[in-house]
Design brief:
Number of helices: 20
Low-confidence stretches: 469-476
Strand content: 15-25%
Largest sheet: 9 strands, mixed
Number of strands: 33
Mean pLDDT: 94
Distance between the termini: 47 Å
Helix content: 25-40%
Structural class: alpha+beta
Shape: globular
């Protein structure tokens, strides 16, 4: 168990308010009549004390209690425009927000877990001891909201009443953060106390944006206090660093799953989508991928959209895995979003009717957003994340400045999507039968493969690798990305991995409801399969086929080829699905390129993982057993067929065994 409420609660120590009576006294002094009446509807002393200390620490000029009413939402929108955090665009209900040129992703180097002396923190994360964090927060956040309005929101991360939903306070001086929160999360002002009573806890997020100038960035910080389930963020503006309802609270949910409900609950960096199958059935799929690696594309490729980024999962009394999306909106990367691959999303981005916050795209002279990979004719000049832009311009290092930042985003409500599913608001979630894992892998794994057993599926998740994306500042190269969740795992990887094995191996899961667990790889390139180009071996729309094949495999309607790494599809099944799902001819030549096993590459990947995990503490032995079993099988194939083993070789090996 992770201890709760042990030692110093930083915001209470700085704010100095210890009783409910003292909190009410502060509210009388700091809030006007209208907002005082709102806060007085909150009777829970713990909630009131937390809010009062945030006010005492940050010392705002005024306090706005957001009830989620249309009037409150409009006030937030107008304040964001007034503060120049956003600007109006010609298309109705569209606005543009720019982060600092130097803050276009998560500031991983300045993000810290607040840790007690004996507290184990992930080896992939930074930590700061509690005493030092107290002084750092005191220095950087005391009086930080002088001259500003503090906004306080009450949200539910998931449909209210769901077994895995979590109540959370959002406290910020940034109207852009609140505008985003109102699109991405469920305002639960009137149900908040009931949700806190149900769960026994709530998350707290305290943020102030600073001056939005480069001078701010050296003192920009994100702190996460696991013991008190509180985050602090200062002098930053990118939503991944400021809207800590999102990844900050996701980390607390991971803790809850690993240390309080191990084997029965998971908190994952996953999309959720429903795939239509024969006979009118819907098969629900959840899939992990690092940010910028295709989660939104995969979610949109399904027929019934629930979520594109996060999933809370549990095992119900009927033995099925259920999933909800803690969010109700999309904070999606727009690079390579285009009419061919993402028609549903493009419809919302290019036609009036849906509220959209754009960030870090180029705005042309007519006020129209543009981004890399849109498939549209780009303008020759405009304004983007680094200032005035014109075609062909270069930066101080001589590098071409792209039309938009690779981490440029759009924020919009999920319910506007044509394939939106009302199941998104069902507290019981959706029965999840397919689990996928993917990264940016240019040269090793095939487009889709299925684990032989659920423990092998856990190993697929543990073995994700990915080329670095633009979502993290200063991160480059190819890196390990376990379960696509590693940046959000507060404790040890060994504990998290144990939770994965225990969850998917839980005897409570009914035999006929065990999930199909699979790897996906959209990023295999021609050059890695004997070609001469760096083009992808496939297209974005092929995702629909890989998901459709997994749907059929779940119901045992397609044949497979057994290999040491798992099960591969057969050509004829894929050929038929390509034609029926996306009306595309799929050649056997392409199939052989995509699904041949390049043994040396896979073995090198396994050896890399074994070595890396060997340096971690308390990693379950089962991981190494599966990797070594796969390695032995691959080595035997190489001895028989050479370093490149085709699907026909694999079928021959299968028939010989």
């Amino acid at each position: 168990m992770l201890p709760r409420k042990k030692g110093i609660d930083i915001v209470i120590e700085i704010g100095g308010i210890k009783t409910h009576a003292a909190a009410l006294e502060l509210f009388e002094k700091k809030l006007d009549k209208e907002h005082l009446s709102r806060i007085k509807t909150i009777k829970n002393p713990e909630i009131a004390i937390k809010i009062a200390n945030a006010i005492a620490m940050c010392a705002p000029d005024s306090v706005f209690i957001n009830t989620g009413s249309e009037e409150d939402k409009q006030y937030i929108r107008e304040l964001s425009l007034k503060n120049k955090e956003e600007a109006v665009l010609p298309m109705d209900r569209h606005t543009i927000h720019y982060d600092l040129k130097e803050e276009q992703g998560r500031i991983v180097d300045r993000t810290f877990y607040v840790a007690d002396v004996d507290e184990e923190i992930s080896s992939l994360a930074n930590k700061m001891d509690r005493a030092a964090a107290l002084e750092d927060v005191r220095d950087k956040m005391s009086g930080v909201m002088n001259g500003k309005t503090m906004m306080i929101g009450f949200y539910s991360r998931g449909p209210a009443g769901s077994f895995v939903s979590n109540p959370a306070l959002e406290i910020s001086s940034s109207a852009y953060v609140f505008h985003s929160a109102e699109i991405l999360y469920r305002n639960a002002f009137h149900a908040f106390e009931k949700e806190v009573e149900r769960t026994g806890y709530f998350f707290t997020n305290i943020h102030s944006e600073g001056l939005n100038s480069p001078q701010d960035l050296p003192k920009a910080r994100v702190y996460m206090d696991r013991i008190y389930q509180t985050t602090y963020s200062v002098s930053c503006t990118y939503a991944g660093n400021t809207l800590l309802l999102k990844k900050g609270n996701h980390r607390f949910c991971v803790d809850k799953a690993v240390y309080e409900n191990r084997g029965n609950e998971l908190s994952e960096h996953m999309f959720i989508t429903g795939i239509d199958g024969p006979g009118g059935r819907i098969t629900w799929c959840a899939g992990a991928a690092p940010s910028g690696c295709g989660k939104t594309t995969s979610a949109m490729a399904g027929n019934h959209f629930v979520g594109d980024d996060l999933a809370q999962m549990w095992i119900d009394e009927n033995g099925s895995i259920r999933s909800i999306n803690p969010e109700c909106g999309i904070f999606g990367i727009v690079e390579d979003v285009n009419w061919e691959g993402d028609p549903y999303l493009m419809e919302l981005l290019r036609k009036p009717g849906t509220e959209v916050i754009w960030s870090n795209v180029l705005i042309d002279e007519d006020g129209v957003p543009h981004w890399t990979g849109s498939g549209e004719t780009p303008p020759r000049k405009g304004i983007n994340y680094q200032g005035p832009w014109e075609e062909g311009m270069t930066d101080e290092h001589g590098n071409k400045v792209p039309i938009s930042h690779p981490n440029a985003r759009c924020t919009l409500t999920s319910s506007a999507l044509p394939n939106y599913s009302a199941k998104s608001e069902d507290p019981n979630g959706v029965e999840t039968r397919v689990i996928t894992y993917s990264g940016r892998d240019s040269d090793t794994m095939p487009p889709v493969w299925v684990a032989k057993k659920t423990d092998h599926g856990v190993v697929i998740g543990a073995g994700i690798v990915s080329a670095a994306t633009a979502t993290e500042v200063g991160v480059t190269g190819v890196k390990r990305a376990p379960w696509a969740n590693a940046p959000f795992i507060p404790g040890s990887l060994g504990d998290y991995m144990d939770a994965q094995f225990k969850f998917f191996g839980n005897e409570k899961i009914a035999e006929d409801k065990k999930p199909v667990m699979a790897g996906l790889n959209y990023f295999l390139i021609d050059e890695a399969r004997g070609g001469t180009s760096k083009n992808l071996l496939g297209e974005k729309r092929d995702v629909k086929v890989w998901l459709a094949w997994l749907e059929r495999h779940t119901h045992r309607e397609v044949e497979v080829i057994e290999t040491p790494i798992g099960f591969l599809p057969k050509y004829n099944d894929l050929k038929d699905l390509f034609k029926s799902i996306i009306d595309k001819e799929y050649s056997e030549e392409l199939y052989v390129k995509q699904f041949s096993l390049y043994i040396d590459n896979i073995v090198a990947r396994i050896d890399w993982q074994i070595e890396a995990y060997g340096k971690e503490s308390n990693i379950p032995d089962r991981l190494f057993e599966v990797f070594k079993e796969q390695r032995a099988g691959l080595t035997a194939l190489k001895e028989k067929f050479g370093s490149i083993v085709t699907p026909s070789d694999l079928e021959k090996a299968e028939s010989d065994s």
